[in-house]
Each structure stands twice: as structure tokens, then as C-alpha cells.
Design a protein that fits this description.
By secondary structure, the chain is an alpha/beta fold. The chain has one domain: TIM Barrel (Alpha-Beta Barrel). The chain has eleven helices and eight strands. The protein has an eight-stranded parallel sheet.
């Protein structure tokens, strides 16, 4: 079951969904569904136009706001982009390296390294996503791919920020309905923790929170929360349903309470 010393963190990645009216309804529903939630940190990552709406909606709550993307330059003629400094005061977290950014927008490990560095420099909390393709898993390359992505993103860092989050998202399980088994996810997440230990030391490895992401839903969340190294979830489609998302958050909060007892 989840580690009793690391507070689990559940992120809701809306991706490119919800118009203004729908976003307002969902934010209101999330506030109501998650009111009084304890033993779990909740980060809602709406589409960029609704970041300010989310910050205003959650101003008096414990719910946090995350951005789905960031540009690494501080300022300049970069139409359509937002830098980390622009997010300060609105978002507290930023997703970096999501597989859709890597695959659809062809973001390289080096580009993701720049993004991670600018997020950390701005004092924001990064959620660094790493994950392998189905072909890479079949070829037995999972560990090599994850290590390349993790170490590539962290190249140049002297230390991993104490609040940094890593999200293991096997690409073959994202939005496909094919979730990794809890045992498989645990095995891979534990190996990522070893990679962090080798790069940044055992203390960082013990403190870093590692989420699982990939077709997590209200029905299977408890199974993932039962694993000792999985410290939460990065949720896609199910985050667009307030009741389902609250159920997922509740599963990790419940597991954390039991682990602390």
C-alpha cells in the first residue's frame, strides 16, 4: 500500500477538453466533490485558457492548479506560448514531458530538460512524465527508455527538488483503456526509484513521489493505491468526471491513512 511518509498526489489532466461553460461547471463540481479531502494532494490541470478560472475557483480550497505545458524562454516573440514566470501565482505545478508532447509534438529529451529547468527555476513544482512505447516494452527496452528520459531531463541538476513529482505513464496505456497491472506498475515504479537513488541519492529516492498514469479510473484506483511505491496517479479522461476523479483521490487518501495507522 502507498508509503505512509509520502503524501500521495493525484493530478487531473484535462488535456484539450472543455469550453468555458463546461470548465466552469467542472471546476464547481470538483470543489464540491473534493471538499474536505485529506491525506491526498490534488492538482487540477485544465486547458490553458481556464488556468485563471481554476485558480479563482480554488482560491480558498486546498485544491491546487497545474499547467499542462510551459515554454523555456523567459520572454520574447514566441506567439502562443507561456513561460514559467507567467504561471507563478496561478499554477503551482507544471506537467513536463508528457508522452503526447513527446510523440505528437516531437519534443526531445533535450527540450524537456530545458522545460524542467525553467519550471524549477521559477519555484514551480514539476510533474515529470516518462514512459515507454508498446514496441519498446515488447523489445525489453522499458528500463533503458525510462532511464534515458529521466536522466536526460535531469541533466545538469545538482539535486532533485524535494517537491518534484515523477509520473510513470506507459504510452501504450494512455487513453487506450489498457492499464498496466498494479503489479507491473509497482515493479516499474520501484525501478524508477532506484534510478533516482543512483542519480541523486537514497534520500531523494525515498522522498520523491512517483505517480502512475495510464487509463486510471474509479474502478482500478484502489488496486494501484495498494502498491508501496505508487504515490498517486496522473489521470486523464476520468478527471473530466468530478465523481470519478474524487473517487480516485479518495482511494489514494484512504490507502495513505491506513499506511500511517
Amino acid at each position: 500500500m502507498v508509503n505512509g511518509t509520502r503524501t500521495p498526489i493525484v493530478g487531473g489532466n484535462w488535456k484539450m477538453n472543455a469550453n468555458r461553460a463546461r470548465a466552469g461547471q467542472l471546476l464547481h463540481a470538483l470543489r464540491a466533490a473534493l471538499e474536505g479531502s485529506t491525506d491526498v494532494e490534488v492538482v487540477v490541470c485544465p486547458s490553458t485558457p481556464w488556468l485563471g478560472n481554476a485558480a479563482d475557483a480554488f482560491a480558498t480550497d486546498d485544491l491546487l492548479v497545474g499547467a499542462q505545458n510551459v515554454y523555456w524562454e523567459r520572454e520574447g516573440a514566441f506567439t502562443g506560448e507561456q513561460n514559467a514566470e507567467m504561471l507563478v501565482g496561478t499554477a503551482s505545478h507544471v506537467i513536463v514531458g508528457h508522452s503526447e508532447r513527446r510523440q505528437v509534438f516531437e519534443e526531445s529529451d533535450d527540450l524537456i530538460r530545458h522545460k524542467l529547468a525553467t519550471v524549477i527555476a521559477a519555484g514551480l513544482t514539476p510533474i515529470l512524465a516518462i514512459g515507454e512505447l508498446q514496441a519498446e516494452r515488447v523489445a525489453g527496452q522499458t528500463s533503458a527508455v525510462l532511464e534515458r528520459q529521466l536522466l536526460g531531463a535531469c541533466d545538469g541538476l545538482d539535486a532533485l527538488p524535494s517537491d518534484a513529482v515523477v509520473a510513470y505513464e506507459p504510452v501504450w496505456a494512455i487513453g487506450t483503456g489498457l492499464a498496466a497491472t498494479p503489479e507491473l506498475a509497482q515493479e516499474v515504479v520501484a525501478s524508477i526509484r532506484v534510478m533516482v537513488a543512483d542519480r541523486f541519492g537514497t534520500e531523494s529516492a525515498a522522498n520523491v513521489r512517483i505517480q502512475y498514469g495510464g487509463s486510471v479510473n474509479a474502478e482500478n484506483a484502489s488496486d494501484f493505491a495498494s502498491q508501496p511505491d505508487i504515490d498517486g496517479a496522473l489521470v486523464g479522461g476520468a478527471s473530466l468526471n468530478a465523481a470519478d476523479f474524487a473517487s480516485i483521490c479518495g482511494a489514494f487518501g484512504h490507502a495513505h491513512r491506513i499506511a500511517r495507522a
